[in-house]
Design goal:
alpha/beta, Rossmann fold, eight-stranded mixed sheet, 30% helix, disordered N terminus, binds S-adenosylmethionine
Length: 240
């Protein structure tokens, strides 16, 4: 099945779960979809995306590949505000092709990236060749980092699709050094049947785990997306 966040948001009015739970986009059945209802009654869905297949085209979207200098500069500026001022150990979970990892490395940070998709990992390794960065295949919910601890756990557009977001957040919290922080970039995409994790839901999950929670609303910043967006997009920086 080939579908990703940007496509879900773009075609949010067109896709539907059939009574048998298969995901259809513009009349094309894409695959089985598992739907979860959060405690606040918000429906979230986890379509079984083929990330290996997506890897080749993933960077074509402005906010994925960051090829447009204006989009790149906008993300670099936000990231600078979210990451520590001094060089830090950053764990980028569900790192994809390594676009945010690359920005973090350019800002002087040491990066460990983890992704389930070997094809994504390959691209990330190529993108950050020669940088202080290592990429590991593995599950973002339980990254294969052993006893290592990090100053930052950075996760963009991944938490919403995990089967147990609360469990993942608790584990990520345990991977942080004292004074570490979670940097989570999430949203809710689509209008008719939205997918994602709403800000208030994420804050509810984070409150028992972290302190100093800061939310930045990102929808209005056109530079980040390379276009106008109407849905909910945000970042949370949660210190421990
Ligand atoms: C929407 S992309 C985001 C990529 C990257 N974080 C970014 O913002 O450019 C989602 C990524 O998460 C990865 N992914 C999805 N579920 C995962 C899991 N359970 N463990 C590790 N990676 C996962 C996918 O392979 C894909 O690369």
């Amino acid at each position: 099945m080939r579908v990703c966040l940007w496509r879900l948001s773009r075609i949010g009015r067109q896709w539907r779960a059939s009574p048998r739970g298969r995901l259809s986009v513009a009349g094309v059945t894409l695959g089985r979809m598992s739907e979860r209802i959060t405690t606040d009654g918000h429906a979230t869905a986890s379509p079984p995306v083929d990330w290996d297949a997506q890897a080749a085209v993933f960077d074509d979207e402005p906010d994925h590949g960051l090829r447009d200098p204006l989009v790149r500069a906008a993300w670099a500026e936000r990231l600078r505000g979210w990451l520590p001022a001094r060089p830090a150990d950053v764990l980028d979970l569900g790192c994809g092709t390594g676009s945010l990892s690359q920005l973090a490395a350019e800002q002087g940070h040491r990066v460990t990236g983890v992704d389930l998709s070997e094809a994504m990992i390959e691209r990330a390794r190529a993108k950050l060749a020669g940088r202080d960065a290592v990429f590991l295949p593995g599950d973002a919910a339980r990254p294969p980092v052993g006893e290592r601890r990090f100053d930052v756990v950075l996760v963009r557009h991944v938490l919403w699709a995990l089967s147990d977001p609360a469990g993942a957040l608790g584990h990520w919290r345990s991977l942080l050094r004292p004074s570490g922080r979670l940097v989570l970039v999430e949203g809710v995409w689509g209008t008719v049947t939205p997918v994602g994790i709403p800000t208030d839901r994420l804050l509810t999950l984070l409150t028992p785990l972290t302190e100093h929670i800061r939310v930045e609303h990102l929808s209005e910043d056109v530079r980040l997306w390379g276009k106008e967006v109407a849905d909910e997009r945000y970042a949370v920086v949660a210190g421990v």
